[in-house]
Amino acid sequence: MKIKIKKNSFNSIVPIAVFIFIWQILAYTANTPLFPTPGKVGIEFISLLKNGILLENLLSSLWRVIIGFLLGSMVGIITGILMGSNKIIEKSLQPLISILYPIPTLGWLPLLIIWIGINNRLPITLIFICAFFPVTYNTLTGIKEVKEEYIKSAKVLGASPKYTLRKVVIPMALPNIFSGLRQESGMVWRTVIAAEMFAVPNGIGSLLINAESLIRVDIIMVCLGVLSLMCFIFDRSFIWIENKIIGEWR
Amino acid sequence: MSIIKLKNISTPYCLKNINFEIEPGEFIVLLGSSGAGKSTLLNIISGLNNYSGEVFYNNQNINKIPTEKRNIGYLMQDIHLFPHMKVYDNIAFGLKARSYPKDKTNKKVEEMLSLLKIQNLKNRYPKDLSGGEKQRVGLARALITEPKTLLLDEPLSSLDPKTAKEIREELVKLHEYLNLTTILVTHNFSEAKALADKIIIISEGILIQYGSTYSIFNRPNKEIESFIRVSNL
Q1: Residue A150: which residues within 8 A CB-CB, separation 6 or more?
Q2: 3-class DSSP assignment, residue B181
Q3: Cα B208 to the chain's mean position, in Å?
Q4: Where are the domains of chain B?
Q5: HEC assignment per residue over B193-210
Q6: pLDDT greater than 60 at residue A3
Q7: Facing B125 at nearest CB: one of A154, A172, A249
Q8: Cα B28 versus chain centre, distance
């Protein structure tokens, strides 16, 4: 087992090491500030950490993501449950959601700038939209996929429709709900970065666009690295929570 | 006095004018080929299927009583234990749904676990159970609310012969010990012969013969005679 784990770790480290090695050679050969070496990017990363710029901007992005994602997911889960458990609500909301869902999240940006203005509510609203639609759909699908026989079994055992929804249908829809949350946990980071690049004066996206205007490729690379790391952490956190909650019985 | 009475029961695509009465404590086997309408009949008694006609339970017309209020134990064909609940919670489900006090629920579940000899499975999830174990848990879950009637939809069909024999013996014991009225659906003649006090034979939605096991096997009408011959081949 230990050998297998070591082998797996080795397998994932090797491509990263090769990537850094090739990057180092290419950057060294190019010898231009437009293509810094990994070492230079590392030094800039430490410097941005030390002077607090990176942390300050990261925290700005992080809390926007958390609030927008929490709100979007909660409203999405509730809407999905209502639609999945009530045919009238489903039939009423389905056309509206079908029309709005295909609009790319960033397509809302110009409209939201006019309506909300350039402030913190803008990226939070965008993240809300980004999370809401897919989470609604996944919750709805999860509820619809619960086999009718389980609902009949609950009925026969004396459960009311509300009790069945609470104790049978929603728990059995959790794998789908988690799949939606996990899928969107990366997307919300991409959305917040884009919103900050265009319309908010702080956050990782803002740092990224400022670095671009100063032609500081090393800072751009630091920002991309941080973005990648945050997506990875969010993804892994959801896998961990999912395993904790439904891993035992799935 | 009958415990279950079906009067002029029909469904659009399956059953045609079914009438029969069942006495309390009888073990009835519903026999017929696949698609004959046996499971539909159980669904009608439990209130899961729409129908025309009348269903009486303890001389009361229960047409308008919803499934969840009928308290008729029903073990469906694929059992459908809730996969996210451990065996304990699956068994306790019926009591929790009725807001039973926790201590009483706990006591009843322990009794059921002991009655079905499945104490060792208490903390397992359904995915970790064998076919026979699932049947036992399903029985415990169906019986915990003390129904007077138990409906069983082909409970032995997916089991290996040894486990099927064990469960069959268990069913007879439970039927006698709990003084249940039991209706079991099967298409297996030897199973019917071994278990039934009375047999109802259904073919293409029509009740062909209803009588004691002895009369069905010794004085079958012509259709059943050929049916028995085919199944003995």
Answers
A1: A168, A169, A172, B80, B82
A2: strand
A3: 20
A4: 1-70+187-233
A5: HHHCCEEEEEECCEEEEE
A6: no
A7: A249
A8: 9
3-state secondary structure of B137: helix
How many angstroms separate the CA atoms of B111 and A94, rounded? 48
Query: What's the token pair of residue B87?
Result: 């065996």
> Do the bridges between strand B27-31 and strand B198-203 make them parallel or antiparallel, or are there none, so unpaired?
parallel
Q: What six digits make up the tokens of B156? A: 């032995």
B82's tokens: 């809730």
Q: Is the dihedral of CA A192, A198, A201, A205 positive or negative?
A: positive
By Cβ distance, the residue of A150, A157, A248 closest to B97 is A157
Nearest to A189 by CA among A208, A217, A172, A173: A208
pLDDT tens digits for B122-135?
A: 999 999 999 999 99
Question: With respect to CATH, is domain B1-70+187-233 assigned 3.40.50.300?
Answer: yes
ipTM, interface predicted TM-score of the complex? 0.91
Q: What is the mean pLDDT of chain A?
A: 93
* Each residue's pLDDT tens digit, B149-182: 999 999 998 899 999 999 999 999 999 999 999 9
Question: pLDDT tens digits for A160-219?
Answer: 999 999 999 999 999 999 999 998 999 999 999 999 998 888 999 999 999 999 999 999
Decide if B93 and A167 are in contact by the 8 Å CB cutoff: yes
Q: Which of B72, B82, B124, B144 to mutate to test the interface with A (most CBs of A within 10 A)?
A: B82
